[in-house]
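hey can u check if this looks right to u? its 233 residues, i copy pasted from the old doc so theres a chance i mangled smth
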Amino acid sequence: MTADDGQDGSAIAGSDGAGVRCRLLVPDEFAEAVELVTVAVAELSFYRWLFGDAMSDEALRWAAERKCGCVRQGGSIGAFDTDGRLVGLLVLNHPGQPAPTTTDDQLSFLTELVKANLDIARRFQMLRKTAEQHPVRPDAIDVAHAVVEPRLRNSGILRTLAIAAYEVAMERGHPLTLRTNVPELAVAYREKLLCVDTGSYVDASGATTWVLGQEVADMPAAIARLRARTSTV
Protein backbone atom coordinates (compact mmCIF):
# COMPACT_ATOMS: atom_id res chain seq x y z
CA MET A 1 0.00 0.00 0.00
CA THR A 2 1.05 3.61 -0.32
CA ALA A 3 1.08 6.41 2.21
CA ASP A 4 -1.42 9.22 2.18
CA ASP A 5 -0.57 12.86 2.81
CA GLY A 6 -0.78 12.46 6.57
CA GLN A 7 -3.92 14.52 7.01
CA ASP A 8 -6.89 12.16 6.77
CA GLY A 9 -5.82 9.25 8.93
CA SER A 10 -6.04 6.70 6.09
CA ALA A 11 -4.66 3.22 6.68
CA ILE A 12 -1.11 2.75 5.45
CA ALA A 13 -0.49 -0.87 6.41
CA GLY A 14 -2.87 -3.77 6.75
CA SER A 15 -3.34 -5.74 9.93
CA ASP A 16 -1.23 -8.84 10.49
CA GLY A 17 -0.66 -11.34 13.28
CA ALA A 18 -0.43 -8.47 15.72
CA GLY A 19 -4.13 -7.77 15.20
CA VAL A 20 -3.68 -4.04 14.65
CA ARG A 21 -4.05 -1.57 11.82
CA CYS A 22 -1.58 1.25 11.32
CA ARG A 23 -2.39 4.69 9.97
CA LEU A 24 -1.08 8.22 10.05
CA LEU A 25 -2.34 10.13 13.06
CA VAL A 26 -4.36 13.32 12.78
CA PRO A 27 -3.60 16.35 14.99
CA ASP A 28 -6.70 15.76 17.14
CA GLU A 29 -5.15 12.51 18.41
CA PHE A 30 -2.37 14.37 20.22
CA ALA A 31 -3.88 13.70 23.67
CA GLU A 32 -4.08 9.95 23.04
CA ALA A 33 -0.47 9.93 21.90
CA VAL A 34 0.64 11.79 25.03
CA GLU A 35 -1.12 9.30 27.31
CA LEU A 36 0.70 6.39 25.67
CA VAL A 37 4.10 8.09 25.64
CA THR A 38 3.83 9.22 29.28
CA VAL A 39 3.84 5.58 30.39
CA ALA A 40 6.95 4.85 28.34
CA VAL A 41 8.82 7.97 29.47
CA ALA A 42 8.41 6.88 33.10
CA GLU A 43 10.42 3.73 32.32
CA LEU A 44 13.44 5.49 30.84
CA SER A 45 16.49 6.09 33.02
CA PHE A 46 17.31 9.17 30.94
CA TYR A 47 14.39 11.08 32.48
CA ARG A 48 15.30 9.96 35.98
CA TRP A 49 18.70 11.52 35.29
CA LEU A 50 17.17 14.68 33.78
CA PHE A 51 14.63 15.42 36.51
CA GLY A 52 16.40 13.82 39.48
CA ASP A 53 14.55 14.42 42.75
CA ALA A 54 12.06 16.63 40.89
CA MET A 55 10.68 13.64 38.97
CA SER A 56 6.89 13.78 39.17
CA ASP A 57 3.78 12.91 37.19
CA GLU A 58 3.71 16.50 35.97
CA ALA A 59 7.33 16.30 34.80
CA LEU A 60 6.67 13.05 32.95
CA ARG A 61 3.60 14.53 31.31
CA TRP A 62 5.63 17.58 30.26
CA ALA A 63 8.29 15.34 28.71
CA ALA A 64 5.66 13.29 26.86
CA GLU A 65 3.97 16.41 25.50
CA ARG A 66 7.31 17.67 24.22
CA LYS A 67 8.03 14.28 22.62
CA CYS A 68 4.64 14.30 20.90
CA GLY A 69 4.72 17.90 19.71
CA CYS A 70 5.14 16.95 16.05
CA VAL A 71 2.04 14.71 16.21
CA ARG A 72 0.02 17.90 15.78
CA GLN A 73 1.78 18.49 12.45
CA GLY A 74 0.78 15.14 10.98
CA GLY A 75 2.96 12.31 9.71
CA SER A 76 3.30 10.18 12.87
CA ILE A 77 2.07 6.59 12.76
CA GLY A 78 -0.32 4.92 15.19
CA ALA A 79 -1.25 1.27 15.65
CA PHE A 80 -4.90 0.73 16.60
CA ASP A 81 -6.56 -2.40 17.97
CA THR A 82 -9.90 -3.79 16.83
CA ASP A 83 -11.71 -1.37 19.16
CA GLY A 84 -9.95 1.60 17.56
CA ARG A 85 -7.74 2.23 20.60
CA LEU A 86 -4.20 3.56 20.13
CA VAL A 87 -1.83 0.82 21.34
CA GLY A 88 1.40 1.67 19.54
CA LEU A 89 3.04 4.77 18.16
CA LEU A 90 5.97 6.04 16.12
CA VAL A 91 6.44 9.78 16.59
CA LEU A 92 8.04 10.96 13.36
CA ASN A 93 9.87 14.16 12.50
CA HIS A 94 9.90 14.77 8.75
CA PRO A 95 12.52 16.75 6.80
CA GLY A 96 11.67 20.43 6.63
CA GLN A 97 9.00 20.12 9.30
CA PRO A 98 9.09 23.13 11.63
CA ALA A 99 9.99 22.56 15.26
CA PRO A 100 6.89 22.05 17.43
CA THR A 101 5.79 25.17 19.25
CA THR A 102 6.08 25.38 23.02
CA THR A 103 2.81 26.16 24.75
CA ASP A 104 2.55 28.74 27.51
CA ASP A 105 1.89 25.99 30.06
CA GLN A 106 4.95 24.03 28.96
CA LEU A 107 7.15 27.10 29.11
CA SER A 108 5.81 28.07 32.53
CA PHE A 109 6.46 24.60 33.93
CA LEU A 110 10.01 24.51 32.61
CA THR A 111 10.79 28.03 33.82
CA GLU A 112 9.66 27.27 37.36
CA LEU A 113 11.44 23.92 37.32
CA VAL A 114 14.86 25.26 36.37
CA LYS A 115 14.54 28.25 38.71
CA ALA A 116 13.98 25.91 41.63
CA ASN A 117 16.54 23.29 40.56
CA LEU A 118 19.90 24.55 39.37
CA ASP A 119 21.10 21.00 38.69
CA ILE A 120 18.21 20.49 36.28
CA ALA A 121 19.03 23.76 34.55
CA ARG A 122 22.59 22.51 34.08
CA ARG A 123 21.35 19.19 32.68
CA PHE A 124 19.13 20.96 30.16
CA GLN A 125 22.14 23.00 29.03
CA MET A 126 24.14 19.80 28.59
CA LEU A 127 21.25 18.27 26.67
CA ARG A 128 21.03 21.24 24.33
CA LYS A 129 24.78 21.13 23.67
CA THR A 130 24.69 17.42 22.87
CA ALA A 131 21.78 17.94 20.46
CA GLU A 132 23.76 20.66 18.66
CA GLN A 133 26.80 18.40 18.40
CA HIS A 134 24.81 15.44 17.07
CA PRO A 135 22.03 16.81 14.86
CA VAL A 136 19.45 14.66 13.13
CA ARG A 137 20.29 13.77 9.53
CA PRO A 138 18.56 16.56 7.58
CA ASP A 139 17.23 14.42 4.72
CA ALA A 140 15.81 11.67 6.94
CA ILE A 141 12.52 10.94 8.62
CA ASP A 142 13.54 10.65 12.26
CA VAL A 143 11.79 8.40 14.76
CA ALA A 144 11.60 10.69 17.78
CA HIS A 145 9.91 8.05 19.92
CA ALA A 146 8.68 4.47 19.52
CA VAL A 147 6.26 3.00 22.04
CA VAL A 148 3.90 0.06 22.45
CA GLU A 149 1.41 -0.29 25.28
CA PRO A 150 3.22 -2.31 27.99
CA ARG A 151 0.78 -5.23 28.14
CA LEU A 152 1.02 -5.70 24.36
CA ARG A 153 4.78 -5.66 23.94
CA ASN A 154 6.35 -8.60 22.11
CA SER A 155 3.11 -9.12 20.20
CA GLY A 156 4.33 -7.96 16.78
CA ILE A 157 2.99 -4.41 17.00
CA LEU A 158 6.38 -2.72 16.76
CA ARG A 159 7.23 -4.82 13.70
CA THR A 160 3.95 -3.77 12.07
CA LEU A 161 4.71 -0.13 12.85
CA ALA A 162 8.16 -0.51 11.30
CA ILE A 163 6.65 -1.85 8.06
CA ALA A 164 4.29 1.13 7.98
CA ALA A 165 7.17 3.54 8.62
CA TYR A 166 9.24 2.04 5.81
CA GLU A 167 6.25 2.38 3.47
CA VAL A 168 5.85 6.05 4.36
CA ALA A 169 9.58 6.67 3.95
CA MET A 170 9.63 4.99 0.54
CA GLU A 171 6.58 6.94 -0.63
CA ARG A 172 8.23 10.21 0.38
CA GLY A 173 11.72 9.24 -0.75
CA HIS A 174 13.49 9.72 2.58
CA PRO A 175 15.74 7.43 4.63
CA LEU A 176 14.65 6.59 8.16
CA THR A 177 16.72 7.18 11.30
CA LEU A 178 16.25 6.51 14.99
CA ARG A 179 18.27 6.72 18.18
CA THR A 180 18.21 4.92 21.49
CA ASN A 181 20.37 4.80 24.59
CA VAL A 182 18.68 1.62 25.82
CA PRO A 183 20.93 -1.35 24.90
CA GLU A 184 18.06 -3.84 24.71
CA LEU A 185 16.17 -1.61 22.29
CA ALA A 186 19.25 -1.15 20.12
CA VAL A 187 19.52 -4.93 19.80
CA ALA A 188 15.81 -5.23 18.99
CA TYR A 189 15.99 -2.52 16.34
CA ARG A 190 18.94 -4.27 14.67
CA GLU A 191 17.79 -7.86 14.88
CA LYS A 192 14.02 -7.59 14.66
CA LEU A 193 13.42 -4.39 12.70
CA LEU A 194 16.52 -4.78 10.48
CA CYS A 195 17.87 -1.30 11.23
CA VAL A 196 21.55 -0.70 10.49
CA ASP A 197 24.03 1.06 12.76
CA THR A 198 25.22 4.40 11.38
CA GLY A 199 27.01 5.79 14.44
CA SER A 200 27.05 6.27 18.20
CA TYR A 201 27.95 8.90 20.77
CA VAL A 202 27.86 9.51 24.51
CA ASP A 203 24.82 11.59 25.40
CA ALA A 204 24.45 14.22 28.10
CA SER A 205 23.51 11.61 30.70
CA GLY A 206 26.71 9.67 30.05
CA ALA A 207 24.96 6.81 28.27
CA THR A 208 25.91 5.52 24.84
CA THR A 209 23.34 6.51 22.21
CA TRP A 210 23.18 4.34 19.11
CA VAL A 211 22.12 5.88 15.80
CA LEU A 212 20.43 3.43 13.45
CA GLY A 213 18.52 3.65 10.23
CA GLN A 214 17.44 2.30 6.88
CA GLU A 215 18.14 3.65 3.40
CA VAL A 216 15.28 3.92 0.91
CA ALA A 217 16.92 1.46 -1.51
CA ASP A 218 17.05 -1.21 1.20
CA MET A 219 13.48 -0.79 2.45
CA PRO A 220 11.66 -3.12 0.02
CA ALA A 221 13.86 -6.04 1.05
CA ALA A 222 13.47 -5.14 4.72
CA ILE A 223 9.68 -5.02 4.41
CA ALA A 224 9.62 -8.41 2.67
CA ARG A 225 11.76 -9.96 5.40
CA LEU A 226 9.67 -8.42 8.18
CA ARG A 227 6.41 -9.65 6.64
CA ALA A 228 7.84 -13.16 6.32
CA ARG A 229 8.77 -13.35 9.97
CA THR A 230 6.68 -15.05 12.60
CA SER A 231 8.75 -13.76 15.53
CA THR A 232 7.34 -10.87 17.50
CA VAL A 233 8.69 -7.62 18.85
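Residues 88 and 148 are 4 Å apart (CA to CA).
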